[in-house]
Amino acid sequence: MDQQCTTLSSFIIEENRRLGDKATGEFTGLLNDISIACKGIAALVNKGALAGVLGVAGSENAMGDAQKKMDLIANDLFIDALQNNGHCAGMASEELDEILTLPEGKIRGSYLVTFDPLDGSSNMDVNIDVGAIFSILKAPADKKDPTAADFARPGTEQIAAGYCLYGPSSMFVLTTGNGVNGFTLDTSIGEFILTHPDMLIPETTSEFAINASNQRHWEPAVQQYFADCLAGEDGPLGKDYNMRWVAAMVGEIHRILCRGGVFLYPIDARNREAGGKLRLLYEGNPMAMIVEQAGGVASTGYKSIMDVVPNGDPHQRVAVIMGSKQEVEIILSYH
Ligand code: FDP
């Protein structure tokens, strides 16, 4: 093993020290809990059919999505990791109807965690990228059980955010508000190792990701931008574009962090009232924090995602346009 390698745990301890944290160890412990959940999920996702984790569970989540077996397993792994170690006071998950407080007798920690334990889970059965997304907020100071209102805080109040991509290799990507760093899971030693320090999104791009089957429902601004992308160098944008659609937000954002691009899940005629398709607290906000910490822009089309005021519904939806700074600004100029 490379003698110089930095593990996720040693990176977080060092980062806290550098930031002059009083080092209670609680925040480090919380990130460690999350990384343990992600390692457990990575192991099962990697085994796939051999672990018997493919297929549907036969249930639906609060938004009416059919739950996969692995959605529920990943959710349980997050809950187990977070409720037993005294770092977390409550959680909100895509797979739970309501926010979750801790059982009697468990120590209430100083943080709230929201998560999508298996983003892009429809990819699971076809062996394509899936991921986990999380956001960390400060818990109420009184150590009482949190309510939904305690989670209803704008993205600007996030203490940290991250995701774990389960792809050809598993990667844990983290921001604590001081840039973005990526760690690759070395399965031979069971550690996430810093492999992508100071990730920065290129400001310009000619690659976009959008589910074009929804085209007829989009607003005119997005319709026009899309048409201009397709027109390529003969159109007003003056360049040829490339298109990608992984159908897992973690995969799209990771590609954008690595080589630039824009990802759009915009408002459309069917989701206008709800505010969009993706979820604000455990998809939009954490990804917006990561993208902006990496030098990108994250908007609903009309305002910064992290300025959206939550309405108290843990499953509130939001429109998402994020990625390379200059390209997002071009898209916003169409709105
Ligand atoms: P999924 O529903 O499979 O979990 O979380 C929502 C999400 O995936 C994103 O990860 C992904 O980008 C998008 O939905 C995929 O949407 P489409 O079904 O429209 O492709």
UniProtKB/TrEMBL annotation:
Q: Which cofactor does it need?
A: Mg(2+)
Entry's Gene Ontology BP terms: fructose 1,6-bisphosphate metabolic process; fructose 6-phosphate metabolic process; fructose metabolic process; gluconeogenesis; sucrose biosynthetic process
Respond yes or no to whether keyword Methyltransferase is given for this record: no
Cite the binding residues for substrate. Answer: 119-122, 211, 277
Query: Which spans are transmembrane here?
Result: none
Q: Which residues form the Fructose-1-6-bisphosphatase class I N-terminal domain?
A: 7-197
What does the Swiss-Prot or TrEMBL cofactor note state? Binds 2 magnesium ions per subunit.
Cite the annotated pathway.
Carbohydrate biosynthesis; Calvin cycle
GO cellular component terms, semicolon-separated: cytosol
Catalyzed reactions per annotation: beta-D-fructose 1,6-bisphosphate + H2O = beta-D-fructose 6-phosphate + phosphate
Q: Record-annotated residues binding Mg(2+) 1?
A: 94, 116, 118
The record's listing under SUPFAM superfamilies reads:
Carbohydrate phosphatase
Where, by residue number, does Mg(2+) 2 bind? 116, 119, 283
Gene3D superfamilies noted in UniProt: 3.40.190.80, Fructose-1,6-Bisphosphatase, subunit A, domain 1
Fructose-1-6-bisphosphatase class 1 C-terminal domain boundaries: 201-334
Enumerate the subcellular locations listed in this protein's record, separating them with semicolons: Cytoplasm
Is Cytoplasm included in the keywords of this UniProt record? Answer: yes
Gene Ontology molecular function terms on file: fructose 1,6-bisphosphate 1-phosphatase activity; magnesium ion binding
Kindly state which keywords UniProt assigns to this record, in alphabetical order: Carbohydrate metabolism, Cytoplasm, Hydrolase, Magnesium, Metal-binding
EC? Answer: 3.1.3.11
Q: Which PROSITE patterns match?
A: FBPASE (PS00124)
Write out the similarity annotation.
Belongs to the FBPase class 1 family.
The subunit structure is: Homotetramer.
Protein name (Swiss-Prot/TrEMBL):
Fructose-1,6-bisphosphatase class 1
Gene name as annotated: fbp
